[in-house]
Write a structure and sequence with these properties.
Elements lengths: L1 H26 L3 H28 L6 H51 L12 H19 L3 H29 L6 H6 L12 H15 L5 H4 L7 H28 L5 H5 L9 H14 L3 H34 L6 H4 L9 H15 L1 H4 L1 H27 L17 H18 L16 H23 L10
Helix pairs in contact: 1-5, 1-7, 1-9, 1-12, 2-7, 2-9, 2-16, 2-17, 3-4, 3-12, 3-14, 3-16, 3-18, 4-12, 4-14, 5-9, 5-12, 11-12, 12-14, 16-17, 16-18
Length: 482
């Protein structure tokens, strides 16, 4: 199942991430940031993936990152290293699911808006309460599908792979072909948008802020590691899943960005909250391409439907990964009511962990009812939180386990430590850069709450360790000495 799962997840994360944060890319730097920023983020992400793949080859288990940290940090530090890595990983994964399914709910709302006439034609604009209900319904369906036997889930994974392969290539070719006005190659490959309306004028700063779209999209490849206990030849296929997921995402994602951007001719119009799509840039691109060509935007709405199904599959795969991580982490007693979450049903599916993960992701999205800023802070953990979890076992690999690490069938040879350090430094860099203010002057409405969200998670995990967990959590004790 793993190869199909990883391949599918890589494609659907492209459609999900780029669609969700295309506005961010257009705002901060525009075409140049998206086209070249994607390649830069992709290259550094590959160093993270290669280092993870090497570790996965040595320790193929559904615990993944937190188990790796325990093995690599040594007996003295193993419990604490495992505890920190595991909690950053599972909370980051829940945040990914929350952001993916919430973005699908928002896209469905935009599709309904356009289908009923658009913002300027009296279309229906759903309230935030309707959107959160859509979000809950989507999570319910994802939990339901993930409760099926693994053979059914594998079939759905293959279906999603086929859907997304066809969909992403169709859209990257169809949209610029249908558009009556196309951007020039010089615009797509060299135009740098500094008119962001956020008071940010430094070009390097703008470029950095625009990287968020790329880095957010290039996450989730640890899903392959969490499926290794359901995979044959996991010490080879696990690493292949991680690397192929990133590589396919880089190539397909770049093509998708370039193709869509050829249909961009008026950035301010696409970002305006007064356009027919209410400021949802990709939806406006699709809608206008067909409306200007055929006099009706129906074709664009249909294309948005293709993306919506792709995001649905992404959320489904995300819940799969969440539940396997929750199952493994609770199996080692790290979560409240652990015995409940690591039970499996007669089909060997962690049923309780599936529904628990869906519930937590729904609770995370409830912050959107109070403040969009608060919700943005919550889902920021999906990027920085996950990458911290990715970097921790790599850091232990190049420090504490530099000489004791036993390589698996897949390894990086003499470049292992160098690539590992590059990966760690990159994660450290983006953790700082994505915590910078995104607008000036800085007010409570424009403040980047990412440091508070990630710092809050760090404080809670360390505090829990000091107060209680250090007395009873021993890490993955069933495997540490194996």
């Amino acid at each position: 199942m793993l190869s199909n799962f990883a391949f599918s997840f890589s494609i659907i994360s492209v459609l999900t991430g780029v669609t969700t944060l295309y506005n961010n890319g257009l705002t901060y730097g525009g075409p140049a940031t998206m086209v070249y920023g994607w390649l830069i983020a992709g290259a550094f992400t590959m160093t993270v993936g290669l280092s993870m793949a090497e570790i996965c080859s040595s320790f193929p288990t559904s615990g993944g990152l937190y188990y790796w940290s325990a093995k690599l940090a040594g007996p003295e530090w193993a419990p604490f290293a495992s505890w920190m890595t595991g909690w950053f990983n599972i909370v980051g994964q829940w945040a990914v699911t929350a952001s993916v399914d919430f973005s699908l709910a928002e896209l469905i709302q935009v599709i309904i808006l356009l289908a009923t006439g658009g913002k300027n034609g009296g279309g229906y604009e759903a309230s935030k309460y309707v959107v959160i209900c859509l979000h809950g319904g989507i999570l319910f369906l994802h939990a339901l599908i993930n409760s099926l036997p693994i053979s059914y889930l594998s079939f759905v994974g293959q279906l999603s792979a086929a859907w997304n392969i066809i969909g992403v290539f169709l859209l990257m070719v169809l949209i610029p072909l249908v558009a009556t006005e196309r951007a020039s190659p010089s615009f797509v490959f060299t135009h740098f948008n500094t008119d962001n309306g956020a008071g940010v004028n430094n070009k390097f700063y703008i470029f950095v802020l625009g990287l968020l779209m790329s880095q957010y999209t290039l996450t989730g490849y640890d899903a392959s590691a969490h499926m290794t206990e359901e995979t044959k030849n996991a010490d080879i296929n696990g690493p292949k899943g991680i690397i192929s997921s990133i590589g396919i995402s880089i190539l397909v994602g770049w093509g998708y960005i370039v193709g869509i951007t050829f249909a961009v001719t008026n950035i301010p119009l696409l970002l305006s909250p007064d356009n027919d799509a209410g400021g949802y840039a990709i939806a406006e691109i699709f809608y206008l391409a067909f409306k200007n060509r055929f006099g009706s935007g129906t074709g664009g709405i249909f294309c948005l439907g293709i993306v919506a199904v792709a995001i649905f599959f992404c959320g489904m795969s995300s819940v799969t990964s969440n539940s396997r991580m929750a199952y493994a982490f609770s199996r080692d007693g790290a979560m409240p009511f652990s015995p409940l979450w690591h039970k499996v049903n007669k089909h060997e599916v962690p049923f309780n962990a599936v529904w628990f993960s869906a519930f937590i992701s729904f609770v995370m999205a409830l912050t959107s009812l109070g403040s969009v800023v608060a919700f943005d802070a919550m889902v920021s953990i999906a990027t920085i939180g996950l990458y911290i979890a990715y970097a921790l076992p790599i850091f232990f690999r190049v420090t504490l386990a530099c000489k004791s690490f036993v390589r698996g069938p897949f390894h990086l040879g003499p470049f292992s430590v160098l690539i590992g350090w590059i990966a760690v430094i990159w994660v450290l860099a983006i953790s700082v850069l994505f915590s910078l203010p995104v607008a000036y002057p800085v007010t409570k409405e424009t403040l980047n709450y990412t440091p508070a969200a990630v710092g809050g998670l760090l404080f809670l995990t360390v505090s829990a360790w000091i107060v209680s967990a250090r007395h009873w959590f021993k890490g993955p004790i069933t495997n540490i000495n194996s």
